[in-house]
Amino acid sequence: MRPWIPLAALVLALSPLTVVHPVRITGRSMEPALHDGDLRWALRAWASHAPRRGEVWLVEGPHGVSAKRVLGLPGETAEWRGPDLWIDGRRLDEPWVVHPERGGEGRSASEEGYLVLGDNRPDSQDGRTWGRLPRAALRGRIL
């Protein structure tokens, strides 16, 4: 047997992991869509399209990697008033938010980067405090 055959077989078997990889969800910030301990697949950022509103991505925030929903796109102005999120003056319909934040107001001015928020707003550290994240901070799209 040629010595390169087992190596080629191993490379071929592991090659899908260069594009898609397993991810364990930690924390409650994305409930009820994702639960603590869930195992999901993520498409690596370089293999995916640009982030779209409503998609869940793995993001590199100030406290490490976590799953968050992309809501504000580059060049848009986002405001939150109590439970409602407004994008460029229009209220965003968010059927995935079961536990909205009842208080608080804020604004993310029109700038480069993505505004990412957790679905479980009272229990989420996200773009409301971090600000917008650059494209390079979005590591992969949850499938």
What is the molecular shape?
Answer: elongated
Can you summarize the main beta sheet? Answer: 6 strands, antiparallel
Structural class computed from helices and strand pairing: mainly beta
Kindly provide the radius of gyration, computed on alpha-carbon positions and rounded to a whole number of angstroms.
18 Å
Instruction: Report the count of strand segments.
Output: 10
What is the ordering of alpha helices and beta strands?
HEEEEEEEEEHE
How does this model look, in words?
With 143 residues, this protein is mainly β. 10% of the residues lie in helices and 34% in strands. It has two helices and ten strands. The longest helix is centred in the N-terminal third of the chain and has 11 residues, at 4-14. The protein is elongated. It starts with a helix and ends with a strand. The mean pLDDT is 88.
